[in-house]
Amino acid sequence: MVVVVCGLDAPSREHRGVGADVGLGQGAARGQSRTGRREHGPKRADVVVVQPSATGRRAGGRPVWLGLVNDRDATADIAAWIESGGPGIAEPPTILDLYTFSPSRRVRAELDE
Q: pLDDT digits over 88-111, tens only?
């Protein structure tokens, strides 16, 4: 599983902190985290993209895009979901519906590059 944390500007300590908060900052066995700048991506701040593991993808999981993830409660909810298996394996906490958005196909394709 991969968690991508990005925003409108270059990655900051805050962006890296979100990756660590969701429990992936050290590249733990359950996944890895990276930060990036979405120059042509969604015009949203504090974006977290949770990509499914290979098992999750085989079960039908797809990347989940979350925007405005800028508080500890939201990152704790994301971390709990990832611990449970993430996309395709476990249902996300209902509260994450408030953060979920769908980027354009072009932006989604950039993530795969």
A: 999 999 999 999 998 888 877 776
